[in-house]
Specification:
heterodimer; A: alpha+beta; three-stranded antiparallel β-sheet; 4 helices; B: mainly alpha; 10 helices; about 85% helix
Chain lengths: ~110, ~240
Amino acid sequence: MAGMRKELVAASAEPMILALLARGESYGYAIIQEISRRSAEKIQWTEGMLYPVLHRLEENRWIKSRWIEAENGRKRKYYSLTKAGQKELAEQHDNWLAVHDVLSGLGKADNVQP
Amino acid sequence: MFNLEEMIQRWRESMQAAGIGPGPVRDELESHLRDGLDAGLRSGLNPASAFAKATLDLGQPQDLHREYHAAHPFWARVRSLLRRRVELFPSDMKLCAWAAIPTSCYGIYFSCLNAYANRIFFSRETLAAGHYGSAIQLGLEYTLGPLICLLTIRAAIRYLHRPDFGPARTLAMFWVASAWYIGTFLLMLWAAFGEGSLDSNGRALLSSLSMRPRCLTIAVALIAYHDWRKRLQRQS
């Protein structure tokens, strides 16, 4: 996303990944494509950003992974949400909603009276 | 002639050279690369162009390494490892420590009195007779025995409930527990056979065997107490 700060991308990656995996297990490439599609290509994650985050989430035991072999013999590492991850997602979701509510309440800069 | 598999192999080697690893990490990146390649081929690119685009999208090995390193700096990894170890069974550890302290203190006090009176701090005779002549051994037995039992049982329970706990760690726990049991058992046998008395052999065996259930009872009681407290907390 043009102009989107790196810190914001990093901070929002965790809840977005958790929320995506709450819908079902997925793998790295599909996660990037799905986020890009859902954000109308405004959010473009790089692989270098995604995989370390996935590994960190796995280390925190919020997600777990397993290798699945496709019919053509190709292996993919699928990630899925754990119970701890569901709890974490609920918590992070609430936090982001709180931020969203405050920003929505304040309105955009051009609506603000001087 | 463009050889895709050879190019992928070279790409893997460049990842390894950049310090990206271990193997499964590179496997995952390769899987991603192949997905990108497939997408490129589907969009009509030739294999060479699809490969070039996929590797470009994935990023330079050095950049990837930097990202991985930023996400997993050494001390962060060490802290995470330590935290995980501490988080393994924090409440169990506390419970165990509380249970072990009085029993250890009592055992050490009693043993010290005995040892002082007899001027024996460690001997085959006292071991063979099923007594603890050594205050240190008694303290360790009462402190580590329940703790190891507790950890072993907990590991088994966790493994049953949480497959991500990992069989390797569970096996390691069982191994540590078994080593301790076998070690103490052999020590007693050594003492008993060293003395060469059938009577004392029998007593040593009995003592050794009776010691295990004692530790297990403490461990099971602690687990039951812990679970009961957790249930109460959940209900409240």
